[in-house]
Amino acid sequence: MSGTLVLVRHGQSEWNLKNLFTGWRDPSLTELGHSEAKAAGARLAARELKFDIAYTSTLSRAQLTCQHILDAVGQSDLDTVRDEALNERDYGELSGLNKDDARAKWGEDQVHVWRRSYDVPPPGGESLRDTGARVWPYYMHTIQPHVLRGETVLVAAHGNSLRSLIMALEGLSREEVINVELATGVPIIYRLNADSTVASKEVLAG
């Protein structure tokens, strides 16, 4: 076995609560979101996990989640890299819209295609495949080398950026990945083999 990769979707954001498409917009965490992030950190602390480096996006909801986790494991000052490669999928013209309002405007079927298809982007935005096109190279060239050196790495990011990363890690098909659901504030621990394949996966649900 090589190293350990911990993935965590940010805690509930203000726009999650309001049922809005968020994408690259930057709302903060709700009170529940802060609690979810702290609880994620507590679960990781209970496993006595210590990180060598942390990665997060340029969006505050992921950064706050990352910091809550590092505080909980006693590593508040850990080197943390922020990069837009890990940002949420860009929802383009849907960003900021209530999901019910979007269905009223474009129709439920069309909005479902934009939300759940693999390669159909919303107007002015990204598909899941587009999101993967920036996440995968960043993981391969920047994050994975740390894991393959035997380090323990935290990635606090977003539902779709993490789904695309999980697709690569687990070798999921385009049909399989669209059904992957990630709960907010729930750590997923991957232990990787030296050849970068997954040796084990554990979901630390509450």
UniProtKB/TrEMBL annotation:
It catalyses: (2R)-2-phosphoglycerate = (2R)-3-phosphoglycerate. One of its GO terms (molecular function) is phosphoglycerate mutase activity. The active site is at H10, E88. Keywords: Gluconeogenesis, Glycolysis, Isomerase. Transmembrane segments: none annotated. Substrate binds at residues 9-16, 22-23, 61, 88-91, 99, 115-116, 159-160. One of its GO terms (biological process) is gluconeogenesis. Pathway: Carbohydrate degradation; glycolysis; pyruvate from D-glyceraldehyde 3-phosphate: step 3/5. The record marks H158 as: Transition state stabilizer. InterPro entries: His_Pase_superF_clade-1 (IPR013078), His_PPase_superfam (IPR029033), PG/BPGM_mutase_AS (IPR001345), Phosphogly_mut1 (IPR005952). Its EC number is 5.4.2.11. PROSITE patterns: PG_MUTASE (PS00175). Pfam families: His_Phos_1 (PF00300). Homodimer. Belongs to the phosphoglycerate mutase family. BPG-dependent PGAM subfamily. Catalyzes the interconversion of 2-phosphoglycerate and 3-phosphoglycerate. This is 2,3-bisphosphoglycerate-dependent phosphoglycerate mutase. It comes from Aquamicrobium aerolatum DSM 21857. The lineage of its organism: Bacteria, Pseudomonadati, Pseudomonadota, Alphaproteobacteria, Hyphomicrobiales.
